[in-house]
Structure formats: structure tokens, C-alpha cells
Amino acid sequence: MFFIKKNSYSSKQIIENIKNRKNYEKTIRELYKLYYDKVKVLIIKMNGTNEDAEDIFQDAIAKVIWSIDKDQFKGEAHISTYLFTISKNMWLSTLKKRNRYDVSYDNVTVDGKRDEDIDFTDELPLSDGDDLDTKHRFRELLNKIGEDCQRLLTYFYFQQLTYEEILTKFEGKYTSEKFIRNKKSRCINYLRKGLENSTEKISDLLDNISECLDKK
Amino acid sequence: MLSEKTIEERLYLEKISQDVKGVRAQMKKEDNLVTLSVRWSSAAAILLFSFFSIYLVQLDTRSIIEEKCYTNYTRSSQSENEKDPPRLEAALQQINSENYEEAVEILNDLPESDHKDWFLLNASLGLEDYDQVDQLMVKIQNDEEHLYFNQIDNYLLYDIYLLKIKRKIFN
Predict the structure, then answer these.
(1) Interchain contact, A126 vs B10, CB within 8 Å
(2) Chain A: nearest CA to B53, how far in angstroms?
(3) Which of A86, A153, A197 to mutate to test the interface with B (most CBs of B within 10 A)?
(4) CB pair distance less than 8 Å for A188 and B13
(5) pTM over 0.90
(6) Are B159 and B59 spatial neighbours (Cβ–Cβ below 8 Å)?
(7) Secondary structure of residue A131 in the 3-state scheme
(8) Any residues with CB less than 8 A from the CB of B124 and at least 6 apart, and which?
(9) Which of A40, A117, B80, B108 could pair with A53 in a Cys bridge, judged by C-beta atoms 3.0 to 4.6 Å apart?
(10) DSSP letter at A22?
(11) Mean pLDDT rounded to a whole number for chain A
């Protein structure tokens, strides 16, 4: 025997590693190694491409991590079930949005096994459903709002800093907490408007609010 | 109207997605490197195997005897008093003419000498009598004073080992 294969993480270990950010990268790799190929087969069976599968699986992992980070994850099913279910649902929503949905897709399963009848809705983000196109649009919007808006939103929502702390992060660029608060609202409004007006061109939308975004 | 909660969730997901994407990009990069190194290793192995095969095919007892036997006799005969030079010479001629059995007959009648060992080794090699070859090589290797001690080098040992493999493969 030339290679000794290391034991895979158990579902419980994966959750603990994510929660404590211990072996975080290794755990994400493990999820890819264990489940990505199955999700890829699932998506391709439902008329998707490799690229769709990559996007979908990336989002499924992100949603599981969100659920664990926010203590919403109940773990009533194996982590693989979460990943498969999130992936399938997201792809079905995408197909519906693109008018390419077929009823037979509902019966497509991983490894031919029947889907577990568990409702994860209250454990996951974006409970009203999510699709790839909206995800891509949001990313595009985010890339256009400017570096300051991105930093501000990351500080506020991801690092959960206070307005006072955020003000110091910008090292005198902005004069008051009030200004930071207003800027955050403008950034959020832009993203909200961008998502709500899905038919409107992002560039036009940006023109409409550029004055607002650049204002210090 | 979309709630701030939804935007917040999307922002959070996007941030994590970027981390996951980074890990995935690294995985793909590593996979490509592994694929590349496997291809290079395979190419190197094929090349090595080809060289080995060519070497094995062209390797024969005659080429070893031609390379080793005559030159050493000529050199040593000039530097050592021989007990029976005419018959040693006759044995050598038989070896050069590929009459190995006759050479062995002549050599077996000769008194013990370093030359006799060496020629006998060459004649046995010609007959592909590897048991005899092994015995004579051990004898020469175990005697540092033997005139042909330095001739049993790694190249000769390796070539004889390959010849044995070749005989197993082709017989």
C-alpha cells in the first residue's frame, strides 16, 4: 500500500470546524471532495452545465456555513443532505426563472436515492427562494458600488463593527458616524433597488444613484 | 420591497462565497499541477522504459565478451609470465570464433590461473551458463589479488543481471 487515505471528517466534525473556523479551508476542501461530483451529476441531469454546478455548489456551501455561523443549523439530517437539497432547489428556481423548468426534474435524485422529506427552510438564508441569476446580479451590483461601500458593508454585517469602529477604520476619510450611517443606507438602497428592478440595466441604475454613492 | 435582512443575508453569503471560491480556485490549481506532474512522470517513465528496452534488446553475451575478453588478455599477457601461453591463446581464439564449448574444453585442461578463470568466465557467458558465470565472478570478487578483480565492476554485474532477465523474458 503506497498511499494511506486519511479518514474523512464526520458530519459533526465538519460543523464544529466551520463553527470554530478550525481547519476551515481543509473542511471546505473535504466538502468538495466528498459531495461536489454528486451535485455536478445532479445539475447536469437537470440540463445544467459544469459552470452552473460550480456556482450552485459554492452557494450551497456558503448557505450551510451561514446557517452554522448564525446558529440556525439544527443538523437533523446529514450535512450532505443539506448540500444536495440546497443545490437542487436553487437550480430548480433558476430553471423556473429561465422558463426551462420541467416537472420531471422534481424526481431527479442523487445516486437514485429518494430525497429525505425534511424542511430546512427556517434554517437557511433567503427563505423566499434563491436562484443563480439573482445571485449573479447581486454580485454584479456589489462590484459596482465602489470599494468604500463594500468595505463599509463588510465591516457592518460581516465583522459586526459599530458605526464608531467603522469610522476609525476609514482613518479620517469620513467625518461622523452619522455620515457612515447614511452612506450605509445609500449602499443598501442601491443594492435593494438593483435587485428589485431586475429588468433595469445595472449601468443605468448606477447612473441614477452615482451622485448619491460618491457624495461624502 | 426587499427587506434589509435579505440584503444582509446576501452580503454575508457573498462574502463566504468569495472565501469558498478562493479555496476552490486553489484546489483546481493544485489539481492541474498534479495532472501536469503525472503527465511528465508518465512521459519520463515511458522514455526510461524505451531506453531500457532498446538497451536490453541490443545487449548480448557476444558484445560483453568482445568488450572485455581480448583487450584484457593482450594487456595482461604482456605483464605476467604465463604457465601455458599457447593453449591460453588457443582458448582465446576459440572464444573469439564463438566456439565456446571448445574453449571450455581447452581451459578445463589447463592448470589453475587468473587468466583461466577469466577466459572460462567469458566462455561460460558465451554458453549462457550463468551458474558457472556466477561461481567464477564470486571467485574473482573474493580475491583482491586476482588479476581480473577490477574487471568485475558494477556495469558487468548489471549487464549480466539484465541478460538473465532477458533470457527469462524471451525463453
Answers:
(1) yes
(2) 26
(3) A153
(4) no
(5) no
(6) yes
(7) coil
(8) B100, B104, B130, B132, B133, B136
(9) A40
(10) S
(11) 84
